[in-house]
Amino acid sequence: MQFRGAFTALVTPFRNGEVDEESYRRHIEWQIEQGIDGLVPCGTTGESATLSHAEHGKVIRICVEQVNKRVPVLAGAGSNNTREAVELTRYAKDAGADGALLITPYYNKPTQEGLVAHFKAIAKEVPMPFVVYNVPGRTALNLLPATVARMAREIPEVIGIKEATGDLKQVSEVVEFCPQPSPCSRATTSRCCRSWPWADTGSSPWSPTSPPPRCPTCARPSSPGTWSPPRSCTTR
């Protein structure tokens, strides 16, 4: 499956302290009916940091089952603990997810060399496509463009980056430094449109949890030279 267009970072509904499977399945179905291009269970929006491992595995499994190969599933599986990230990524692969979304290690603040080692270790243990998630506002570290380019060259499993720095210069440098086609993907909706001129694949916004229909339309033409459609979508 191709990871292109707009992917919704799904909420994880709970009822009486348990995952509300019925509501979750209904929400997934609605997203697909509205034309979303892909789904992300257990991302930040899904409160992955507060899920138990059992809940984490269950949420991914339900999503994969409900989607039934109609759109790609990019399952959140990151951790600041490399062994835990391996375990969560293995959950995602065993459940049948098409890829994993792996956040950079938070709180620990590893070096750039340490970041490369972290993702190499995950790829070695669980070879599957994954998108690196760079969100310094939550992790207290920044995955630099040169490091992204190195990972794109040295780790075949790295197929993209969810770039959420909000720094347009960094977005452009990721595209410039990386092998072509660029593995640059889009993130935060507040700057999503402005980053589209550098985009190669699309968007992973949180906003389609409520109104997804416009997002795929805006994200799909996000190849070089197609600036007008995204701008018109954002200014509606």
Write up this protein:
47% of the residues are buried. Helix 1 (21-33) crosses helix 2 (53-67) and helix 6 (145-154) runs parallel beside helix 7. The radius of gyration is 17 Å and the shape is globular. By secondary structure, the chain is an alpha/beta fold. The chain has a single domain (5-234), classed as Aldolase class I (TIM Barrel, Alpha-Beta Barrel). The longest helix is centred in the N-terminal third of the chain and has 15 residues, at 53-67. Strands 5-6-7-8-9 form a five-stranded parallel β-sheet, covered by helices on one side. Strands 4-1-10 form a three-stranded parallel β-sheet. Strands 2-3 form a two-stranded antiparallel sheet. Helix 3 (82-95) links the parallel strand 5 and strand 6. It contains ten helices and ten strands.
Task: Give the C-alpha Rg.
Answer: 17 Å
CATH superfamily: Aldolase class I
| Major sheet strand order | 5-6-7-8-9
Query: What's the total number of strands?
Result: 10
Beta content: 15-25%
* Distance N to C terminus: 31 Å
Please mark out the parts with pLDDT under 50 across 5 or more consecutive residues, or reply none: 185-191, 222-227
How many structurally independent domains? 1
What is the second-level CATH architecture?
A: Alpha-Beta Barrel
The pLDDT mean sits at 84
Helix content: 40-55%
Discrete helix count:
10
Structural class: alpha/beta
The CATH topology is given as TIM Barrel
